[in-house]
Specification:
Layout: H1 4-14, E1 20-25, H2 27-35, E2 42-48, H3 53-69, E3 74-80, H4 87-96, E4 101-106, H5 111-118, E5 128-132, E6 138-143, H6 148-159
Parallel strand pairs: 1-4, 2-3, 3-4
Antiparallel strand pairs: 2-5, 5-6
């Protein structure tokens, strides 16, 4: 028993926990999360889904930009539009792409209300990216897949606020 206890303690406390936390969120909860960064960090939110080919295509580039700009005051969140029964697939995808920290899944329900609360300019098309400056003001947004230059120019603009 004395030999098993240290082993169990190492296994229980010593193993790396998942580096990604996936939280179900509605639009109000997401806006609340954005507001937590007001005054300290700019925020980029990418809405995506595992069934969306353009989302998957641009995903690694966004992760790279997140890593590049996180120490410069940019926080990136990913919000999956997948159904909640695909939570494991979403989590596996995020882990596989090297995402760390908090990510979200959109709460199931009235998609139109969610979309309109996030941005009245958003048609609901994926991917959708929205950027807030350090003061919490909307800085930029776009639908559909974009290139690295488009993302980087939006990030730099938001960081200069």
């Amino acid at each position: 028993m004395k030999k098993i206890l240290p082993f169990l303690l190492i296994v229980f406390f010593g193993c790396d926990k998942e580096s990604v936390w996936l939280k179900t969120v509605n639009a109000s909860g997401l806006i609340e999360q954005i507001n937590k960064h007001k005054g300290s960090e700019a925020v980029l939110i990418n809405f995506w889904a595992t069934y969306c080919a353009p989302c998957i295509e641009e995903f690694p580039m966004i992760v790279d930009l997140s890593n590049k700009y996180k120490d410069k005051g940019m926080k990136v969140y990913f919000v999956s539009a997948d159904w909640l029964d695909r939570e494991k697939e979403v989590l596996d995808f995020l882990v596989g792409k090297g995402v760390e920290g908090l990510s979200f899944m959109k709460e199931e329900g009235n998609d139109n209300n969610f979309i309109n609360e996030i941005s009245r300019e958003w048609s609901g098309a994926l991917p959708f990216t929205i950027v807030y400056d350090k003061n919490g003001n909307l800085s930029d947004f776009w639908e559909m897949e974009k290139n690295k230059n488009r993302f980087e120019s939006a990030i730099i603009k938001a960081l200069k606020s």
